[in-house]
């Protein structure tokens, strides 16, 4: 994941979509939203809540509406990129700058801002509790330093490790994964910290 420090830096790195991103950014900045960088991309917020995000890929540039499920979408322009997984997020993709019509985009953005002010949001579901895999439990109880380090990790990081071991189908895979994560746990590193 790119570690952009500013929206300008993000746009400069996306040379083929620079003009489209600058146009979309000017639309976002014409509203009351605050601009920031989250997850390496431009995000626009109201009262600290994510409303809109911008992103550019090889084949398109897009707008993400974090609670887009509540938009009326009369023009039928929004898609759910992960049907069955994504509950609130909706995308609007453009394959050319001339597809971006300022007035239409602004209408959608203003509706998204109002929805945020009206507290319309789908909250993430609590994920199911996963049982501690036997192999991981044995490893932790046999090594007190490792057990102490594991308990000092955040619940989220603990869950990542538990799922990582649980998802391995074969015993040899579980064994290999346990060897891999032991030093990471001792160092207080989360399984996916390098991607954050």
Automatic annotation (TrEMBL):
Gene3D superfamilies assigned to the protein according to its UniProt record, in alphabetical order: 3.90.1150.200
Record lineage: Bacteria, Pseudomonadati, Bacteroidota, Flavobacteriia, Flavobacteriales
Species, as recorded: Aquimarina aggregata
Signal peptide start and end residues: none
Domain of life per record: Bacteria
Domain YdhG-like: start-end pairs: 17-113
Pfam families, sorted: DUF1801, OmdA
Name by which UniProt lists this protein: YdhG-like domain-containing protein
């Amino acid at each position: 994941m790119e570690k952009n420090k500013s929206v300008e830096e993000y746009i400069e790195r996306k040379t083929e979509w620079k003009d489209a991103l600058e146009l979309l950014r000017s639309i976002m900045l014409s509203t009351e939203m605050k601009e920031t960088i989250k997850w390496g991309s431009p995000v626009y917020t109201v009262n600290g809540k994510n409303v809109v995000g911008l992103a550019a890929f090889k084949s398109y540039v897009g707008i993400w509406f974090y609670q887009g499920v509540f938009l009326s979408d009369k023009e039928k322009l929004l898609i759910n990129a992960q049907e069955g997984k994504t509950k609130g997020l909706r995308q609007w993709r453009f394959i050319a700058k001339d597809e971006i019509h300022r007035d239409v985009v602004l209408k959608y953005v203003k509706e998204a801002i109002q929805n945020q002010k009206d507290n319309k949001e789908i909250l993430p579901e609590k994920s199911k509790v996963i049982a501690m895999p036997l192999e991981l439990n044995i490893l932790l109880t046999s090594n007190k330093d490792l057990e102490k380090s594991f308990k000092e990790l955040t619940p989220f990081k603990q869950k990542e490790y538990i799922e990582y071991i649980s998802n391995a189908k074969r015993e040899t895979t579980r064994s290999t994964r346990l060897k891999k994560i032991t030093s990471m746990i001792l160092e207080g590193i989360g399984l996916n910290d390098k991607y954050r």
